[in-house]
Amino acid sequence: MKFTEKNILVFDLEVAPYDFETHYDDSTKEYLLKYAAGDPEKEQEIITNLVFNPFTSRIVTIACLDFNKYFAFKNLNENASISVEMKEKYGTVFSNNETDTSQSSPKDYIDNVQYVYSDEATLVKNFWALIKKYQYNHFVTFNGREFDCPFLMLRSLILDAKPTFNLMKGSDFTFKDYHTDLMKELTFNKHSPTGARRKFSLDFYCKMLGIKSPKSGGVAGDKVHELYENKQFQTIAEYCMGDVIATAELLWKFNNIINI
């Protein structure tokens, strides 16, 4: 990929499920659990997996990174010609604080990242507004074609938040024109349970390739729900931004070495 020819946004989202006992009526609970056939273990498995669907879970954070600005900032000391604009923030994190609206956004940028707190509907609308404002035309994710992009599109439908870019346009064979999913790149578009094309976590790839792992701060994706319930919005936001930075670094290395 020739980075200078594209306006690239790297993004990632974190989600948390609705409370099963209080959010759904009895008939809906029965519908969701019908394939468990009364088996308590299967019921718990189904309830746990509801986090992955946009109709049974909600977005708590979207972290966004302007790829070109980020690497321009990293190379600032080596390139005196970087403009003032490039020295400005390279990242934005939208956080859902609707369970505790008394917590407000940090007033200042933290490590060149702006944090914006709001309810979920505003969060999603802010994300689409960011894409429109900066005219991003290429997107980078890790497993985004399978999860982040369809989740965002359907969550936008639920929240009446009109997208400014169709993140699911085309097919699974043509989306690379506007979207680089590093999970697919690292498995050469067809992962298998074993062998050279086995898929791994972002954390694993980073550790093996000498990139700072997003998990190094002690937070992992399976802790997000608990953190959200405890109103640890900033912790989630910073963890999500760590994922995005790691994804950007992974793309840079992949593109420069084997994307030929």
What do you see in this structure?
The protein is an alpha/beta fold. The protein folds into two domains: 213 residues, Ribonuclease H-like superfamily/Ribonuclease H (Nucleotidyltransferase, domain 5, 2-Layer Sandwich), CATH 3.30.420; 37 residues, no CATH class. The protein contains ten helices and six strands. The protein has a six-stranded mixed sheet, sandwiched between helices. Helix 5 packs across helix 6. The protein starts with 7 loop residues before the first strand and ends with a helix. The model has no long low-confidence stretch (mean pLDDT 92).
Mean pLDDT equals 92
The strand count comes to: 6
Distance between the termini: 9 Å
CATH class of the largest domain: Alpha Beta
Mass-distribution shape: globular
Tags for this entry?
260 residues; single chain; 2 domains; alpha/beta; 15% strand; Nucleotidyltransferase, domain 5
Write the layout of secondary structure elements.
Blueprint (H helix, E strand, L loop, with lengths): L7 E10 L2 H4 L2 H7 L7 H10 L7 E10 H8 L16 E6 L16 E6 L1 H15 L3 E4 L2 H16 L19 E3 H5 L15 H7 L15 H6 L3 H25 L3
Parallel strand pairs: 1-5, 3-4, 5-6
Antiparallel strand pairs: 1-2, 2-3
Summarize the structure.
This protein has helices at residues 20-23, 26-32, 40-49, 67-74, 120-134, 144-159, 182-186, 202-208, 224-229, 233-257, and strands at residues 8-17, 57-66, 91-96, 113-118, 138-141, 179-181. It is of the alpha/beta class and 260 residues long. Strand 5, helix 6 and strand 6 (179-181) form a beta-alpha-beta unit.
